[in-house]
Amino acid sequence: MKNMDYEKLAADIVKDIGGKENINTAWHCATRLRFKLKDESKANTQKIEDLDGVITVVQSAGQYQIVVGNAVANVFNALAKQTGLEDEVQNTQSQEKEKNIINRFIAFISGTFTPFLGALAGAGILKGLLALFVAFNWMNTTSGTYVILYAAGDALFNFLPIFLAFTAAKRLNVNQFVAVALAAALVYPTLVTAASKAQTLHFMGIPVIPTTYTSSVIPILLAVWVLSFIEPVLNKFFPEAVRNIFTPLFSLAIMVPLTMLVVGPLGSSVGNVLSTLVSTLYNFAPALAGAIMGAFWQVFVIFGVHWTFVPVMMNNISKLGYDPLLPILCAAVISQAGAALGIFLKTKNKKQKALAGSGVITGIFGITEPIIYGLTLKLKRPFICAVIAGGIGGAIIGGFQVRASSFTLPSLLAIPTYIGKGFVGSLIGIAVSFVLGAVLTYLFGMSKNTNQVNDQNLDKLVAPVKGTIIPLTSVKDEVFASEAMGKGIAIVPTDNKIVSPVSGTVSAVYPTGHAIGIVSNQGAEILLHIGIDTVKLDGKYFETKVKQGQHVSQGEELIAFDSEKIKAAGYDNTVMMVITNTKQYEVDSTNETAADQNTVLTLQLLK
């Protein structure tokens, strides 16, 4: 989104989404703006998808998601600034009750992990790199450098309950600092030491099961969920004058012991069951598990249900010390990057080629939404090729029983976290996924309708007048130069005859003769405008040769005008040719500077 006006895009999105008043909550992930709207029917999805800078719109898991790509943070910052949502506490509970329980659960998990997923991935990669350095004897675990860097990478995971408490509390609309204090109590050094020594503490005579909650996921999520029921009751019980003190006081006094006695052990038990279940299924047929997850992971992403796996994978690392799923998912991600490479090598469509080229880079670093929604899913066959490649690569990784030692986003950067059992298998599986995705897409993924220019959807426009071609952006008229009306070219005329650049129908004839509109046989809407501010001549020096509704052939005379007299009268005589429905086309302009009867613009229909 280079040179994109983020402020304008954000303003257009807010307008087309139904206005600020229709936004309940808004946040973003690596590539998507995510909204909880009060009424999704008020959002003009088609209009949003047509915006420059928007790849597509996805409505899933109770969220209205606008896929923007790598510039999503800039767009979100502009949107938050314009709407003031960053300063507001949004009450989402009443609206979320209207959603089914599955969508509510997915939205909760997504909203909890998304805000710090980047930091989580970065910390995981750092831990993986340190493991790599140790394996190559570039560093030893007793050095001060290693200890400090390991602390930087491991701190987020060690104190993970605190981060989860903060974001979960925001999702559930409870006091975030009370939730953080609750989480901090779970990882308080004295309690952690007692649990590590299997020392049983007693609370009012009731024994507390010695459990360590560092790096845990499920216990704190359950605890904050219980807090979301207790806090409103306390708020109603205490008068407003003392509520800010007594509600936190009693929340902590109730929730910390309750979590230690009941909620925490229950959450740990649930986590143990999930880890055991995943391990049992995986160990039964690791290659089959790899094939299924490698093939269908991106399908899970499309429907938004992939978030349900995140706490499971993080719980595996906490309970088992490793996770077998993350390396398999890397094959699924890299296969999409391979498919993008196949499209890049095969397609003749310039827009597809540009998107595919950038998609290869973003894909290998774990960002696949622009590839999926902009290319593979839209073209269908490449997505199927990527699914096949991801399944085969995943089967190889599963067969080698590769394990991830730390949580991070599946990408090439995550490879150091796979060091250990089956590491070579991860390299083979990832390489197979990428190469096979590219080869299958190149050979079978691109039909003639997608990898070749379709002449039926092509308009080749000739110059409407002889002269010198100049960029439309350089004309001395802000409306035309800004391309607000559409893309096109401008010509400084050396002739006094305007001809039709295409075969089509005259859609508009201006009484003053200074402009004319044409719709080509293929549907391109073309405006020819002679001079700047020449409407003030009131028809002087212009003679129209055709009528509205008349069909004309390419090269047929439309208007006769006196270029020199227009110039002598003090007006700029530059002729502008603008495609007013530009968004429906890929516009390719000539590199020539002399305008004659050769093609000066080529329009390829995109829709």
UniProtKB/TrEMBL annotation:
<comment type="function">
    <text>The phosphoenolpyruvate-dependent sugar phosphotransferase system (sugar PTS), a major carbohydrate active transport system, catalyzes the phosphorylation of incoming sugar substrates concomitantly with their translocation across the cell membrane. This system is involved in sucrose transport.</text>
</comment>
<dbReference type="GO" id="GO:0016301">
    <property type="term" value="F:kinase activity"/>
</dbReference>
<dbReference type="GO" id="GO:0090589">
    <property type="term" value="F:protein-phosphocysteine-trehalose phosphotransferase system transporter activity"/>
</dbReference>
<feature type="transmembrane region" description="Helical">
    <location>
        <begin position="383"/>
        <end position="402"/>
    </location>
</feature>
<dbReference type="GO" id="GO:0005886">
    <property type="term" value="C:plasma membrane"/>
</dbReference>
<feature type="transmembrane region" description="Helical">
    <location>
        <begin position="422"/>
        <end position="444"/>
    </location>
</feature>
<feature type="domain" description="PTS EIIA type-1">
    <location>
        <begin position="477"/>
        <end position="581"/>
    </location>
</feature>
<dbReference type="Pfam" id="PF02378">
    <property type="entry name" value="PTS_EIIC"/>
</dbReference>
<dbReference type="Pfam" id="PF00358">
    <property type="entry name" value="PTS_EIIA_1"/>
</dbReference>
<dbReference type="InterPro" id="IPR013013">
    <property type="entry name" value="PTS_EIIC_1"/>
</dbReference>
<keyword id="KW-0598">Phosphotransferase system</keyword>
<feature type="active site" description="Phosphocysteine intermediate; for EIIB activity">
    <location>
        <position position="29"/>
    </location>
</feature>
<dbReference type="GO" id="GO:0008982">
    <property type="term" value="F:protein-N(PI)-phosphohistidine-sugar phosphotransferase activity"/>
</dbReference>
<protein>
    <recommendedName>
        <fullName>PTS system sucrose-specific EIIBCA component</fullName>
        <ecNumber>2.7.1.211</ecNumber>
    </recommendedName>
</protein>
<feature type="transmembrane region" description="Helical">
    <location>
        <begin position="216"/>
        <end position="234"/>
    </location>
</feature>
<dbReference type="InterPro" id="IPR036878">
    <property type="entry name" value="Glu_permease_IIB"/>
</dbReference>
<dbReference type="InterPro" id="IPR001996">
    <property type="entry name" value="PTS_IIB_1"/>
</dbReference>
<dbReference type="InterPro" id="IPR011055">
    <property type="entry name" value="Dup_hybrid_motif"/>
</dbReference>
<keyword id="KW-0472">Membrane</keyword>
<keyword id="KW-0808">Transferase</keyword>
<feature type="transmembrane region" description="Helical">
    <location>
        <begin position="357"/>
        <end position="376"/>
    </location>
</feature>
<dbReference type="GO" id="GO:0009401">
    <property type="term" value="P:phosphoenolpyruvate-dependent sugar phosphotransferase system"/>
</dbReference>
<dbReference type="InterPro" id="IPR001127">
    <property type="entry name" value="PTS_EIIA_1_perm"/>
</dbReference>
<keyword id="KW-0418">Kinase</keyword>
<dbReference type="InterPro" id="IPR050558">
    <property type="entry name" value="PTS_Sugar-Specific_Components"/>
</dbReference>
<keyword id="KW-1003">Cell membrane</keyword>
<keyword id="KW-0762">Sugar transport</keyword>
<dbReference type="InterPro" id="IPR011297">
    <property type="entry name" value="PTS_IIABC_b_glu"/>
</dbReference>
<feature type="domain" description="PTS EIIB type-1">
    <location>
        <begin position="7"/>
        <end position="89"/>
    </location>
</feature>
<keyword id="KW-0813">Transport</keyword>
<dbReference type="InterPro" id="IPR003352">
    <property type="entry name" value="PTS_EIIC"/>
</dbReference>
<feature type="transmembrane region" description="Helical">
    <location>
        <begin position="246"/>
        <end position="267"/>
    </location>
</feature>
<keyword id="KW-0812">Transmembrane</keyword>
<feature type="transmembrane region" description="Helical">
    <location>
        <begin position="325"/>
        <end position="345"/>
    </location>
</feature>
<keyword id="KW-1133">Transmembrane helix</keyword>
<feature type="transmembrane region" description="Helical">
    <location>
        <begin position="146"/>
        <end position="165"/>
    </location>
</feature>
<dbReference type="Pfam" id="PF00367">
    <property type="entry name" value="PTS_EIIB"/>
</dbReference>
<feature type="domain" description="PTS EIIC type-1">
    <location>
        <begin position="107"/>
        <end position="460"/>
    </location>
</feature>
<feature type="transmembrane region" description="Helical">
    <location>
        <begin position="287"/>
        <end position="313"/>
    </location>
</feature>
<dbReference type="GO" id="GO:0015771">
    <property type="term" value="P:trehalose transport"/>
</dbReference>
<feature type="transmembrane region" description="Helical">
    <location>
        <begin position="177"/>
        <end position="196"/>
    </location>
</feature>
<dbReference type="InterPro" id="IPR018113">
    <property type="entry name" value="PTrfase_EIIB_Cys"/>
</dbReference>
